[in-house]
């Protein structure tokens, strides 16, 4: 199984790129996490937010494989305790399907992306920078994997 994080935006600060890479490299090949950056739509006088969101959504949906299990990162999604995320990761590993996680751009994810998703996951009630969301996703996946393997990284209660 592989996990692809499909994220809108290509010019992130170095610390965000390094944060994602740090946690992604810690995961074994059996649970590899890969970042796929999707170009943000240009916004301007002739392009409305809705048009930009539509373009980004088409790009995200086009990057999906037919059989991907799709997780939309969305504020209306389910919030998981880390141990619950570990159980979900264990299920994904057992199913053998690739997982694609969608992180939208400045305007979030379109209705089409949310409809395509098998699961909606909310990282927090807080509004997070999209680059930071990437880092949090990678870190939480690493933490969930460490729980499943009895690795000492996770020292929760």
Fraction of helical residues: 40-55%
Strand order of the largest sheet: 2-1-4-3-5
Shape: globular
Question: What's the total count of β strands?
Answer: 5
At the first level of CATH, what is the class? Alpha Beta
Quickly give the CATH architecture. Answer: 3-Layer(aba) Sandwich
Instruction: Kindly estimate the percentage of residues that lie in beta strands according to DSSP.
Output: 15-25%
Q: Output the structural class.
A: alpha/beta
What is the rounded Rg? 15 Å
Order of H and E elements: EHEHEHEHEH
Overall number of domains:
1
Please name the fourth-level CATH homologous superfamily. Answer: SPOUT methyltransferase, trefoil knot domain
- Count of DSSP H/I helices: 5
Could you describe the largest sheet, including whether it forms a barrel? 5 strands, parallel
What would the keywords be for this entry?
single chain, 157 residues, alpha/beta, 5 strands, 42% helix
Structural notes for this entry:
The protein is α/β, with parallel strands linked by helices and 157 residues long. It has one domain (2-148): Alpha/beta knot, CATH 3.40.1280. The chain contains five helices and five strands; from the N terminus they run βαβαβαβαβα. The chain has a five-stranded parallel sheet with strand order 2-1-4-3-5. It is globular and about 55 Å long. The model has no long low-confidence stretch (mean pLDDT 92).
